[in-house]
Amino acid sequence: MVGMEAEASRVAGRPRVHSFWVDVLVRLVKEKPLGTVGGVIVLILLIVGVFANWLAPYGYNDIFVGPRLSGPSAEHLLGCDHLGRDLLSRIIYGARVSVVVGLSVSVIAAVLSTFIGVVCGYIGGKLDLVVQRFVDGWLCIPPLFLILTLIAVTGPGILQVIVVLGVLYGIGRSRIVRGAVMGIRSNTYFEASRAIGCSPGRVLLKHVLPNVMAPIIVLFTITMGAAILAEATISFLGFGIPAPTPSWGGMLSEAGRRYMLMAPHLAVWPGLFLALVVYGINMLGDALRDVLDPRLRGGLGRYGRQKAAREWRIGRRVMRWVGKHEAVNK
Amino acid sequence: MRGQRTLRVVMCFVVVAVAAGLIVGGGCGGPAGETVTPGEEPVYGGTLNLFYTSDLIGFDDAVRTHHLLRNLRLTHDLVWEGDWTKGNAGGYGSGETGWFISGDNRLDLKAGGVVEEVEWDLADKSTVTLHVRQGIHWHDKPPTNGRELTADDVAFSMERQYTLDTGYQKLSYPWIAETIEISAIDDYTVVIEIQPDHIGDLLGALDFMHIYPRDAVEEFGDMNDWQTCVGSGPFILEDYVPGSTVTFTRFDNYWGENPVGPGEGDQLPYLDEVVVHIIPDESTQDANFRTGKLDIMFCDWERAQQFLTMADLEHASYQSDTGYLISMRQDVEGSPFADVRVRQALALATDNQKILDEYFGGEGAVLTWPISPVRGYEEAYVRLEELPEEVQELYEYHPEKARQLLQQAGYADGFTATIVCQNTRSHIDVLSIIASMWEEVGIDLVIDAKDYATYQTLAGKRSYDDLFYGSRSGAGGYYKARNFSGTAYYNTSYIDDPVCNQAREDMAAAYPDEVETTRIHRELMPYLLEQCYTIPIPQGYEYVFWWPWVGNYSGEVSVGYYDWWGYSKYLWIDQDLKESMGY
User: Fold this and answer.
1) Whole-number mean pLDDT of chain B?
2) How far is Cα B472 from Cα B33, in angstroms, rounded to an integer?
3) What CATH architecture is A39-297?
4) For chain B, which terminal residue's Cβ has fewer other Cβ atoms within 10 angstroms, N or C?
5) A63 closest CB neighbour out of B282, B428, B433
């Protein structure tokens, strides 16, 4: 028994067992420096968005607190806009808009794409045929045209932007989730669970969803970047967040473009922050995709480690059982 | 390998630098050669490039609102129009007006259009006679095919305005439409029978409706299709690309002649073409004008700053007749705005001087309602410092008093109000400032910005729940009292005050005696301002810039009563000068 236990230990080793997320985080930091930088940027964005009220030196619509169109100074680190509003404060509050829009759209899109993708991928057949033709048609429509049309009908506003973008991305990205579900349908454990009579709900919750969570997580991060950029585009075109609520795209469109020659800082700072945030989110999404995909790693990898740890635990239980029986039989 | 890589890097830099240079160079004007001095002698030929901020909405002002169809001033004529010689006229006019304001409606500044003379008896104001000018021809397009314009066309056109449900005159002056009788008694005489107290509204309508050929309207139903556009104006509508450009070409058989200056007696127009570029975006407008693609630019103080640094440009500035204001649903029972204390509180919470100093550069007027202090209408206007003290105070900044009034009215905690406006910089910026000011007294102002078409529809129907940001009728119509009485859409606050209604009737009865009408209006103004039916917004100076190759132009905005672009027929383009400047 000891020998068997020793054998099990030699085969599997005694790996350090981390939780899944800690393991992801450790690997992200160790293997993906750009992704780590992206993660830090996203974290800063979240903190700034949540604590904007405390971080911003002025209110976002405190007019004429400084000279119109003035450049950076000790009192106004990034300068003032055409109405004498502190630019740093407006950028900070604009980050809140980006966070709210980005997160909300990503959540709606993730839920919608997961629902459509999982149902179509699992059930298949005629349902999948019909729904995917609708998705095909949806994907053919130019996104910006669709966004502007829907916003023109619903009117501008943050809620309308979130709902429109969430539905737009949710339907579009369902194709990816569907593909992932169809990929695991051929796995043995999938057939086994159905063979022993598991209900469809149990199969979906216990076997399908956990195994397609990786691409969903990646989609979530990528959608967040795309949503922030889309909101900026809509606001730039005048259909987005209504004034005086600041939005980076709206700031670019209004004062940034109008005073580009006289006060370029009104375009530079919102544009820079927008580019930085979208870059960070995309880098984080790319890194997560790599970290969560077992095919892109060598050796045992995460699954190998987890499998080894599971085998070690099973082996230990077997050894104990064998040991008991031997003791009894003796 | 390394050498090849270095060469690739260098080539990339060269390509990028050349591309950047081309982009920057393309944004500038052409190389300046030897510049020719602007000449004073008229020159035939050339193209005048104008711009408009939105797409055209129609071609028939009996179907669409007249003052939104400025394109018709190029293709059609009015009964009478502004007298070019009374303005600067390239330096040869009398200078009684600069034709800077849009709504200058003074009778002594009118000149004949299709009608040579408008006749009425001051004692008996029930009959107005129009003597139609002989020798005016329609454009050589079917079905008119160049025939002569007659009194029947004039009578028919006026009749349409007062009978069609879409006619601006019927909509705005339904009381006239019910009683007016118009008839052409011969080929060149139209007689109009009205009630005497309607004469002011009628005379104001004579340059607020265009003349159409009867046979064309009867054949096509209306004239709202650009392809069937037939007029007697100086230009013919040649081409229309929706959302892009509108092209007008000279009408060779136009009746008008240059009335003054070195070109006196010349047949008009001088230009071969007028091209109107539809450019909604201000930055694009500015870029086009800077690069010489547009010939004339109208803008506010803020945009003017960039052009003031361009030494080649000519410019003029003036107090605008345009007045913006915040209207309130003070007619709705239970609305906070029904209480005069709330309205006065909002006025006290608005720092007008700060708006004027910070946003309009300190040039302009604080008090711009019911009219602005514009040239020619000084007698109808009361300056802020001439108002009673208690009224003056309302237009100063006293947030503490505002809070007290709100408390007295039962709004100690303030309230939320939504204001409808257009999604343009001039609306959004000012309302952002107002929102910030009103927040100090507990009023949460939610800005509901609409696109142009939606906004105009709402404005026309006076459709809003709380507040509306819009403009008012110009100074020229002060005697009609449309800003503070009646059902016209300028009365956006739904004012129905017996004092105002009486003043309207008194002015209508006194018109065309402008001494008496200005006295009545002047006496009424302090009362109106004390009621705070609207929150008038300070208005800065407006600017007009033009390139020196635009000849015979002195910055005119509207030659007559809302007669934009009417100046086009008097202008010429100095092509040699333009080329010598590199454009």
Assistant:
1) 90
2) 47
3) Orthogonal Bundle (1.10)
4) N
5) B433
